Amino acid sequence: MTDFFQLPYGRQYIDEIDIEAVVEVLKSDFLTCGPAVGSFEAGLAKIVQAPHVTACANGTAALHMASMALDLAPGDWVIVPAVTFLATANAVRFVGADVWFADVDPETGLLTQDGLERAYQAGIAAGKEIKAVYSVHLNGQVADPVEIYNFAQQNNIYVVEDASHAIGSTFEMEGGLIQVGSCQTCDMTTFSFHPVKTITMGEGGAVTCKRDALFRKLQLLRNHGMTRSPGEFKINAQAFSEKGEPNPWYYEMHQIGFNYRASDISCALGLSQLSKLETFKSRRSKLATLYDEELEDLAPLLRPVAKVFGCHPVLHLYPVLIDFSELKFDRASLMKALAAQGILTQVHYLPVNRQPYYTNLYGQFELPGANAYYENVLSLPFFPAMTDEQVSIVVRKLKKYLLAG
To answer: If you average pLDDT over residues 272-296, what whole number do you get?
Structure first.
């Protein structure tokens, strides 16, 4: 029972192959700005079938870079679903643009085409200049990518897909299965590789895109807005010698940028983790199926978050919806009781529009779907190293408390 007291809602899986990959970099000449970065980018591009990949420091950096690459600025507004992590909305604010929060499906927590349309019309009616939508693939499931993209194209707005939860997920589109990150239904896709995500770089992120111009912007933004490419130099008198040769020390900054580079240490770990993605996918699918089966007799008091038609997710989290109005105790009491038994749960997420910063900035948004999802959701322990028996223990403890309540 001792090890069971260390059962969190999520946990990285690191093996000796991962450790050896990192040690190899530590013994090399490059700890950053070296070959491991390009190798990771190529590996990710192959898996998600993206023309271009830019690795970066973390998922928040990825979202910030995407915002800058679209030239979002004060006066612009971006639609963001209310149920997401803070970074999705914050990245819009980093560039001085504003956030118009959209409601979500109360059964999935996801933005839908209808939710996007209602948010867009409300924003336009309020006189806002809507420039983009940041769609969020929550828990590993996709947010109606085809319909959202079609609506965005009809209204001339950009689409950024926040796929921090959805590396490896696919969805059905006419012609076959589409990889999240391929950018067939968006301008850019962002990823996070935090330790609780499906794969980890320790801390890390990436942006994928199709257009060469966006890719070049992202490359500059990751590295101080700086270029060392002679073909891009603008001040020839500084850049070139009298013989017309580029000065070997020379670089130029063409726009403001940040140090959002990913290190070779992180990318070596990320590349090693990518090789396990199919294994992680298989195990996560098995765990989800076990939970689905063992929780079945708790319906309708408890039910897994609804499955999205046409989506083949690699689940990052295993969330359930619990009707606390039918119980004698609240969610906090349940979480404390489970924690006392070694089962650590979490809530993903308090709608971002309800955070003090955003209520002070914009006031209240009426988002009943987001509120309903938040009031009922609870993420159960879910990670590849979990055993089948641990899933059964979680379910037994849940049943003990819920059926007694």
So the answer is: 98
Residue 5, pLDDT > 80, answer: no
**DSSP-assigned letter for residue 234:** S
CB 352 within 8 A of CB 86: yes
> Helix (H) and strand (E) counts for the chain?
14, 15
C-alpha 1: how far from its chain's center?
A: 34
Mutual angle of helices 16-26 and 264-274, in 10-degree steps? 150
Rounded Cα–Cα distance for residues 328 and 349 (Å): 23
Closest CA to 390 of 398, 399, 400, 381: 381
Q: Outline which parts of the chain fall under CATH 3.90.1150.10.
A: 277-404
The Cα 373–Cα 376 span in angstroms is: 6
Q: Is 38 left (phi over 0), alpha (psi -120 to 50) or beta?
A: alpha
Most distant CA pair in the chain: distance in Å?
85
Instruction: Evaluate whether the domain defined by 16-274 bears CATH number 2.10.109.10.
Output: no
List, by residue range, all CATH 3.40.640.10 domains of the chain. 16-274
269 sits in which H/E element:
helix 264-274
Please confirm whether the linkage preceding 300 is cis (ω < 30° from 0): yes
Task: Give the residue carrying structure tokens 């689905």.
Answer: 292
Class assignment of domain 277-404?
alpha beta
Q: Report the alpha-carbon distance of residue 266 to residue 56 in Å, rounded.
A: 10
Residue 109 to residue 164: CA distance in whole angstroms:
15
Q: What is the pLDDT of residues 119-154, one digit of tens each?
A: 999 999 999 999 999 999 999 999 999 999 999 999
Please provide residue 119's backbone torsions phi and psi, each rounded to the nearest 5 degrees: -65, -40
- Picking from 144, 272, 137, 149, the residue whose alpha carbon sits closest to that of residue 192 is 137
Given a cut of 60, whether residue 3 has pLDDT beyond it is no
- Using alpha carbons, select from 146, 140, 158 the residue that is nearest to residue 80: 158
Strand 318-322, strand 176-179: pairing:
unpaired
What is the rounded distance in angstroms from the CA atom of residue 207 to the CA atom of residue 86? 18
Q: Which two tokens stand for residue 379?
A: 């993420």
Cβ atoms of 239 and 247 closer than 8 Å: yes
Collapsing DSSP to helix, strand or coil, 102 comes out as strand
